[in-house]
Amino acid sequence: MQSLKVTITLGLFFLFSLVSLALFFNLDGEADFSSLASRDASGKKGKSTVREFEKSEVISKQDKVENEPSALFNDPAIKQAWGLKKSDAARAWKVTHGSKDVLVAVIDTGIDINHEDIKANLWKNPGETGLDKNGKDKAVNGIDDDKNGYVDDVHGWNFVSSTGDLTDNHGHGTHIAGIIGAQAGNQKGISGISPEVSLMIIKYYDPKVTNTDNLKNTINSINYAIKMGAQIINYSGGGTDYSQEEFDAVKKAEKNGILFVAAAGNERSNSDQFHYYPADYKLSNIISVTALDPSKEILSTSNFGIETVDIAAPGQNIISTLPGNSYGFMTGTSQATAFVTGAAVLVKANKTDFKFDDIKKYILSTGDASPTLAQKTRTSRSLNLFKALTVLDQGMSANGVMVTGPVHEVFTTTKGDNKELSSNPFGKSLMDAVQKSNNNTKRLGDKKENQIQ
Predict the structure, then answer these.
(1) I want to staple 185 with a disulfide (CB 3.0 to 4.6 A). Which of 73, 87, 114, 135 is the partner?
(2) φ, ψ dihedrals at 38, nearest 5°
């Protein structure tokens, strides 16, 4: 009798276990991890609203960078800006240094609008600048002068607080904006990849504000960028949950001819198997970017995927701007994404008639091929700014991975004045500084080289 009770008990336990497993697994055999998703106050399962900026933290911070008189555009940080050298920025700047006519929406944590190295390149909403009919400054008069639904959005909008206050309470957004478009030639700080550009700042995340629907803010930010005429969107955040509304917003950007440059993510995973959005949406206007170290290897923290990640760019220990007229280093695919956005600005400035698909094709198909990237990215390439501007379009395939034709070493200006750009100051000082740095490196050995990088 006792043994019968034990048998029945074990049988019921086994049956209960089978039912529990059936509930946990879908019919196709995949675990239903959605049961672990966020829940609302009532305890019901809710859709995740996580679209955080990547796990990028400030590595170090300084008020000024080391003085280096021979540095690029007289800005003092060439020794610390290894990504510029690896991506061939010096020769790219002999072709173009960008254009204020190219409008980039930086969807991130905000910005220090008064930063000495960025403020000159901030976009100004024409409908919110100048004086109103009462002689008041439109930027601060508390009126929606351009009737776009946003009051005093002179440099962009904060979707966390629903104001025009773009204060960056983390530093991530300021860092990304600096990589894209820090001013050159002002004898301060660094130079962005595209030192001439217009930066529209859209804040979707603030670490100091809890219970914020970051996914909703992201969608609203994309729609704002579309509405206000951005040509390129830089988005350095993301999450693992698919969102139809977010997909639709990026699709709308595609229909409006906007290039969407997205971080592949710092999840240490294969995005072909474990998707990261919005980078992994299958839309033609998206460039998904992963991060390289100075040896041109993919960072161990970075996502990869031969079907989902397009290209790699510098992303380790990247120096850029931080709030309070300071500078510092950060690491991640966010930083690599900003490099590619800067490249897109250069291409657009050099070829003003290019559409987003032309820009994407040139960037992806002209990167430096590398065997180590063959199992990491779709193109097996890392960003090369110079080649993106200069490799001929002969024989380039529709998917943007085949290039033939020579790379020219001497160019004429895009304005047709027949001057050789070898005399153009843009890029020359960087090339001189890089050569000086290389000579010093050879004398000081590998240890010193690692310190410089």
Answers:
(1) 73
(2) -65, 145
